[in-house]
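Anyone up for a design puzzle?
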C-alpha cells in the first residue's frame, strides 16, 4: 500500500471513540487506505487515533509523529511506525515534510496551527504547494475573514479545498493524485 503517496492528516486529540468526529476520521483513514495512500498523523488519540485505526483496517501503512515534550500522552496503538521528535516545532515539521498532500479535520487550535504552518511555508516558498483538503463546515467560517480581509494571497487559496466530509475529501485527493502517477 502507499503507491499514491503520503497524506498527513491533522486533527484534534479530544474526539471520543463512538463520537461523530471520530467516526468521520476513521472513515477517512479507511478511504485513504483503499485509495492507496500512506497515512501520517500526530500519533496520539482522538482524530489521530481514528484515522490510524481506519487506515490500518484498510491495510495502509500508518505513521505517528510524536513529541517527547508530551510526557503524559500515550501514542495510539494503530501506528506501524513512530517517529519521535523533541518539541512541537519538530513534530509539526515531521508531519509536513515528506507529505504529498494534507487533510485537516474540524479545526481546533492545534489543527489550525498545523494548517497555518503549511500556509506560511507555501508563502515563503519553502515548501512546494501540495493539495490540502479542509474537512467540515467550520473551515468555511475560518476562511471567510481570511478571504474578506485578503489575509492570504489568492494563489495560496487555490491549493485548498473545503469539503463537508471524508467522502468528498477522498474524491478531491483522487483527482489531485490520479492512479498510476
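Challenge accepted. My sequence:
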Amino acid at each position: 500500500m502507499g503507491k499514491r503517496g503520503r497524506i498527513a492528516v491533522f486533527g484534534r486529540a479530544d474526539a471520543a471513540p463512538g463520537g461523530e468526529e471520530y467516526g468521520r476520521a476513521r472513515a477517512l483513514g479507511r478511504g485513504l487506505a483503499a485509495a492507496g495512500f500512506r497515512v501520517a498523523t500526530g500519533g496520539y488519540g482522538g482524530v489521530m487515533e481514528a484515522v490510524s485505526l481506519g487506515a490500518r483496517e484498510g491495510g495502509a501503512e500508518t505513521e505517528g509523529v510524536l513529541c517527547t515534550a508530551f510526557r503524559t500522552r500515550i501514542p495510539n496503538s494503530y501506528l506501524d511506525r513512530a517517529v519521535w521528535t523533541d518539541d512541537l516545532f519538530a513534530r509539526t515539521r515531521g508531519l509536513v515534510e515528506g507529505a504529498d498532500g494534507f487533510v485537516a479535520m474540524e479545526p481546533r487550535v492545534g489543527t489550525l496551527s498545523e494548517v497555518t504552518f503549511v500556509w506560511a511555508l507555501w508563502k515563503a516558498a519553502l515548501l512546494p504547494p501540495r493539495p490540502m483538503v479542509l474537512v467540515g463546515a467550520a473551515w468555511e467560517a475560518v476562511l471567510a475573514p481570511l478571504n474578506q480581509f485578503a489575509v492570504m494571497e489568492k494563489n495560496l487559496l487555490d491549493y485548498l479545498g473545503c469539503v463537508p466530509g471524508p467522502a468528498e475529501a477522498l474524491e478531491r485527493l483522487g483527482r489531485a493524485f490520479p492512479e498510476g502517477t
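A detail worth pointing out: The first helix runs from residue 20 to 34.
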